[in-house]
Amino acid sequence: MGQPGIMEKLEILADAAKYDASCASSGTAKRNSSGGKGIGSTEGMGICHAYAPDGRCISLLKVLLTNHCIFDCHYCINRKSSNVRRARFTPQEVADLTLTFYRRNYIEGLFLSSGIIKSSNHTMEQMVETARILREDHDFRGYIHLKTIPEADPDLVHQAGLYADRVSINVELPTDAGLTRLAPDKNARQIEGAMGGMKMAIRQARDEKKRFKHAPRFAPAGQSTQMIVGADAATDADIVGRASRLYDGFRLRRVYYSAFSPIPDASAVLPLKRPPLVREHRLYQSDWLMRFYGFEAQEVMQATEADGNLPLDIDPKLAWALKFRERFPVDVNRSSREMLLRVPGLGVKAVNQIIAARRHRTLRLEDVAKLTVSVAKVRAFIVTADWRPTLLTDRADLRTLLAPKSEQLELFAA
């Protein structure tokens, strides 16, 4: 059988990359080619975010350099024992594809990952070379996200940061025990060591940029990581705790969660069914609570049920509020921003508007209703000038009243 052509390679390697969720493109430095130099942009109409039905960002050319791999991680469809079609790009081919798709306005950047071929260093060299061709040979100013390899030489990983807007190093699984069991070729301490080195390099580059105008930029969009959900026995409490430690320890921009998806010829140690996608969604909601709503990881863990997992029928903030009803209702005209952010149904924008508005007038329930999607969800937890929930907050069936109503879809609906 002959070697596959470029489009056949793209079909194989783009499909193989779909399991990586960490492809968002926010937070980078502003660059463009409006002055007549270079090609590409990261501002204005630069990165155009498109989302698949399951919420994943698909705005970048998301592809693997190769799906050949010398590792045998049980959960990975590209593991060396997997019976899948294999293909491999050269760095020049990936660069050419990126430029071609950019000129056709299909994409605004590149997300590049890879299986491990020959060695971690060899693979990392190939990925860095791809980015070098784009940046130096073509003066490409669009977005580049490189998935770096923790087992590679630190100097190679550092070079990746000089060319990429964002780098990511996957922790893969929430617990060390899960990693040892399902990814025997990977080492948790080595992964965290690489993340720590990247954190220090990013910090050093920012310090140098403050002192020296022409200091080279280094991963201006920071670093991120990804955890697979549902491949091992880790609970949501385990995952939330690990995510919090990663944010605190390595100053990550994002932790991404990817629901485990059963793969062909799967190992017997893997579950037969994927977890419900709503579980992944609840973890993203809990992540949002820690990043933007002032919740501590321990508070999010308190929202879990007896099995250590977040409820699937209601969001984590509502689950927490129902467990701590003694803290409610809160007075929207007097309570602190911290407590208002804990009210189910009130987002950050709504809370900011409430605080701004109450400086000028006393708020009524109808005022709050204008700031939220569903005042029915909010009113059990707040007091306004004309509203007090009395016994509503303590009702035994409050969860049932506030949980979203499930809908039966029609098989032959238009």
TrEMBL record:
<dbReference type="GO" id="GO:0051536">
    <property type="term" value="F:iron-sulfur cluster binding"/>
</dbReference>
<dbReference type="InterPro" id="IPR007197">
    <property type="entry name" value="rSAM"/>
</dbReference>
<dbReference type="InterPro" id="IPR051675">
    <property type="entry name" value="Endo/Exo/Phosphatase_dom_1"/>
</dbReference>
<keyword id="KW-0479">Metal-binding</keyword>
<dbReference type="InterPro" id="IPR013785">
    <property type="entry name" value="Aldolase_TIM"/>
</dbReference>
<dbReference type="InterPro" id="IPR023874">
    <property type="entry name" value="DNA_rSAM_put"/>
</dbReference>
<dbReference type="InterPro" id="IPR010994">
    <property type="entry name" value="RuvA_2-like"/>
</dbReference>
<keyword id="KW-0949">S-adenosyl-L-methionine</keyword>
<dbReference type="InterPro" id="IPR058240">
    <property type="entry name" value="rSAM_sf"/>
</dbReference>
<keyword id="KW-0408">Iron</keyword>
<keyword id="KW-0411">Iron-sulfur</keyword>
<dbReference type="GO" id="GO:0046872">
    <property type="term" value="F:metal ion binding"/>
</dbReference>
<dbReference type="GO" id="GO:0003824">
    <property type="term" value="F:catalytic activity"/>
</dbReference>
<protein>
    <submittedName>
        <fullName>Putative DNA modification/repair radical SAM protein</fullName>
    </submittedName>
</protein>
